Structures are given as C-alpha cells and as structure tokens.
Amino acid sequence: MQWKAMDYNYRKTLTAIPATADMIGEGAYLSPVLDQDEKYKGYWECTVSANAKAIKAVSKLFVRTETVKVYNPAAIKEYAKKNRKDVVNTIMFSKLMYYYSPAYQMLIPPMYLVASSNTTTAELSKGGDNILGLKVWCVQPGKWFGVWSLRFMTMTDLRYSQ
To answer: Which InterPro entries does the entry link to (predicted)?
Structure first.
C-alpha cells in the first residue's frame, strides 16, 4: 500500500503499522512474490536490509500452516508456545498459501519495528526499538530502474538457523 511504503520511506525503516492481513500474527510481512498475485497490484515494492548478527540472535520459528489454523491468533500463539517460542519476540516464517510454487513469507513482530509516523495509526502502532538494524527503501511497482534486488523463493538459511 502506498501510504505504508511512504511511512517506511519517511522513517527509513519498517514501522509497526497494523498488518493488512495477519496470517501468522501481527507485524511486518516480507515476501518475494507479492507482484505475482493480482489482488496486490498497486502495492509498492520495498527492499529491506538488517544487521545479520542481530537477526541471527533473535528467536525464529517456521509455522507449518498445514498443521496450525492460520488467521487465528490464539492458535498461532499456542503453536509457538508448543515450540518454546513467544510470538512477541519471535520472527516467524511460513509457506504462502495459494501459490503454485513454493514461496515463503517472513513476519517481523512489532517489538522490532519503530512506531509509525502516520497519525491515523500511531495509537495502534506503538512499536518498539529497531534493534535488528532494519533499513528500508520502497518504490512504486515497476520503478526499480537499474536497482538490483534479491528475489528469493526459500528462506533456508534463516529458517533452519533457529
């Protein structure tokens, strides 16, 4: 969404704007395949970087969507608890539903995101500290002109480095 991307660009990092959809929890969703889905046409595209040591140090969990009910915060919280994780401070991964080829998404919880500068969502997006060193740059769809970006279909390195 344009206004989210503009907020990210203004803060130069991801912000704790409430998610458009919360398949596996609240926070910022990162995915390499957004432009492949018709319903997301018009969404801005962002490149995100982070401090590798900080990312490796935080708790991570791969949510097996075939075994847990998605879009259900209580079920996700229970799944995390069974895996000795807390949804508050755990970066979560899951397979994207409704795609023909395997594609994955990453969810960064609000505690690692700064508060939004958007006054209409500021009370909803308390956020935390950017201890992951997240940096973001967003552009309109198809406007990368000369910018190299990494397209990934799996998150093997992060998924198995729990």
So the answer is: DUF5910
**Can you give the pTM of this predicted structure?**
0.78
Report H helices in the chain.
2-11, 52-57, 73-82, 156-159
- How many of the other CB atoms lie within 10 Å of CB of 72? 14
Place of tokens 């997240």: 134
For the segment 14-24, what is each residue's pLDDT rounded down to a tens digit? Answer: 988 877 778 89
Helix (H) / strand (E) containing 63: strand 59-63
CA distances from 157 to 11, 18, 160 (A): 28, 27, 6
CA distance linking residue 85 with residue 81, whole number of Å: 5
Report DSSP state, residue 113.
S
- Say how far apart CA 44 and CA 129 lie, in whole Å: 24
Residue with tokens 């596996």: 24
Regions in the chain scoring below 50 on pLDDT: 122, 146-162
84: alpha, beta or left, given left = phi > 0 and alpha = psi -120 to 50?
Answer: left
Q: In whole angstroms, how far apart are CA 34 and each of 61, 77, 80, 123, 153?
A: 22, 26, 26, 28, 12
